Amino acid sequence: AIHMNVKHVVRGLRQTSDPILAEPLKAGKVKVVGAYYDLDTGAVDFFDRG
User: Fold this and answer.
1) Do the Cβ atoms of 20 and 6 come closer than 8 Å?
2) For residue 39, what are the domain limits?
3) d(Cα 48, Cα 44) in Å, to the nearest integer?
4) How many domains are there within the chain?
5) How far is the C-alpha of 12 from the C-alpha of 21, rounded, in Å?
6) What are the pLDDT digits (tens) for 10-48?
């Protein structure tokens, strides 16, 4: 469920019409990357970086 939520939020952010995020995304100046941080191990699992 956590991984699906991360993917859902990333998708929403990438499709936003808010110019504060949409313009830099379109220009390639920023990327939205989903990740999961495991509190027990300290490991970070990155999702699709595209």
Assistant:
1) no
2) 2-46
3) 13
4) 1
5) 11
6) 999 999 989 999 999 999 999 999 999 999 999 999 987
How many C-beta neighbours within 10 Å does residue 22 have?
14
Rounded (5°) CA angle 15-18-24:
80
- The contacts of residue 1 (CB under 8 Å, 6+ apart) are none
∠ at Cα 22 (6, 35), nearest 5°?
20
DSSP assigned state of 13: H
Which strand (E) or helix (H) includes residue 9?
Answer: helix 2-14
Confidence label for 49 from pLDDT (cuts 50, 70 and 90):
low
